[in-house]
Structures are given as structure tokens and as C-alpha cells.
Specification:
Layout: E1 8-13, H1 14-24, H2 30-38, E2 43-52, H3 62-70, E3 74-79, E4 81-84, E5 90-93, H4 97-107, E6 113-117, H5 124-132, E7 136-141, H6 152-157, E8 160-163, H7 164-167, E9 191-193
Parallel strand pairs: 1-2, 1-6, 2-3, 5-9, 6-7, 7-8
Antiparallel strand pairs: 4-5
């Protein structure tokens, strides 16, 4: 978690973390995740990034977004875009890479450590840029799935790679805890996808 002298910022790629947790069969409690980082006493910011479907009667992610916004997270959203794929299926895409990268670089001079919850290989350049500014970077994802959800180049670039399957045990949802944060679910159509599928260890652009 870092030493008491460190100032930490956490950046959560919501769609990527959701896909990773789903692949591992785990269910994250964001209240416990926040408490885990607050317990170190040096959390400067914790961001959650996601695209939202507009003009929809019900969005299954809205309860979680509202809870995060009221409970210490810096929620960053933008409108998702609808499209029709080659098979005529309506889908929604939204990529938050740029927003996450801008926030991370703006905070680079204020923090000692950045924690990125994503396995997306596109963040390798961001990790390298933060390291040039003397920021220690930890990446949280998994290599326990087949194929791995964490891109090899991102894992190698990070100062430390944290396996979500093990680390996530600290903030799994407890079905008996009535105070837990709402669950993130995608149960309605159109389906949500990022601008590209979650980048796994064997994928390359």
C-alpha cells in the first residue's frame, strides 16, 4: 500500500476492472476498496472512469455511480456512443483512456505513487511517463485468466504488478453486509463494449 510518507492516487478503469473481476468470478465491494486505501492515511484521490448510456430509462450502473460520487470517489463519465455491429446488433462503446491519462499526468507532481486498476496495454506509455516524473506505478489486474487480462507490456513497465485475484480478497462483497456499495451490472441491452475489447496479455495493436 505504500509508506505513510507517500501520497497515493488511484485510477480505476471501470469497464476494464468489471471485465477482469467477471473473468475471475469475483464481486468487488467499492466501499471496502476505498477503506483499504484510506487505511494507509495517504490517499490523495481515487478516480472511477466509465462511459454512460444517455436517454435510457434505466441504467444498471447508475446506482453504483451515484454511490461512488457521494462516498469519496472522483467519478469521471462521458456519454457512450451507440453503434450497430457487422451482425446488426446494437452496442454501446465508450473509452476513457484519455481522461484517465490526463488526470494522472496532472497529478504527477503531487503524488508519490499511482495505482492503476486496468490491464489495458495502452496504458504502458502513461506508466512510463509517470515514472519519468519520479512516480512509482502499481498496476492491478490479473494473469490468472486464459488469456491473461493484463497486457505483458503493461505488467513489465509497472514498478509493481498486483494480482487482483489475491489482492481483491480484501474487498470482496459480503452478501450479509447491508452497507456495501451497489453492484456494477450490465443486464440490459444494448450491450456495453469499449472502443476495443479488454486488452489481454496475448493481444497487440
Amino acid at each position: 500500500m505504500g509508506t505513510s510518507r507517500n501520497k497515493i492516487a488511484v485510477f480505476i478503469d471501470g469497464a476494464n476492472l468489471y471485465a477482469t473481476a467477471k473473468a475471475l468470478g469475483i464481486d468487488i465491494d467499492y466501499k471496502k476498496l476505498l477503506a483499504e486505501y484510506k487505511s494507509s492515511g495517504n490517499l490523495l484521490r481515487i478516480f472511477y472512469y466509465t462511459a454512460l448510456i444517455q436517454d435510457q430509462e434505466y441504467s444498471s450502473i447508475r446506482p453504483l455511480i451515484d454511490w461512488l460520487d457521494y462516498n469519496g470517489y472522483n467519478v469521471v463519465t462521458k456519454d457512450a456512443k451507440e453503434f450497430t455491429d457487422s451482425e446488426g446488433r446494437r452496442k454501446v462503446k465508450g473509452n476513457m483512456d484519455i481522461e484517465l491519462a490526463i488526470d494522472a499526468m496532472e497529478l504527477a507532481t503531487e503524488i508519490d505513487e499511482a495505482v492503476i486498476f486496468s490491464g489495458d496495454g495502452d496504458f504502458r506509455s502513461l506508466v512510463e511517463a509517470l515514472q519519468r516524473k519520479a512516480v512509482r506505478v502499481k498496476v492491478v489486474s490479473t494473469i490468472k485468466t486464459q488469456p491473461p487480462m493484463a497486457a505483458d507490456e503493461l505488467r513489465r513497465q509497472a514498478d509493481e504488478f498486483i494480482e487482483l485475484q489475491e489482492f481483491g480478497k480484501k474487498f470482496l462483497r459480503d452478501p450479509n453486509d447491508g452497507e456495501r456499495a451497489p453492484r456494477r451490472e450490465f443486464v440490459r441491452t444494448p450491450a456495453f463494449v469499449s472502443d476495443r475489447p479488454p486488452i489481454r496479455g496475448n493481444d497487440r495493436d
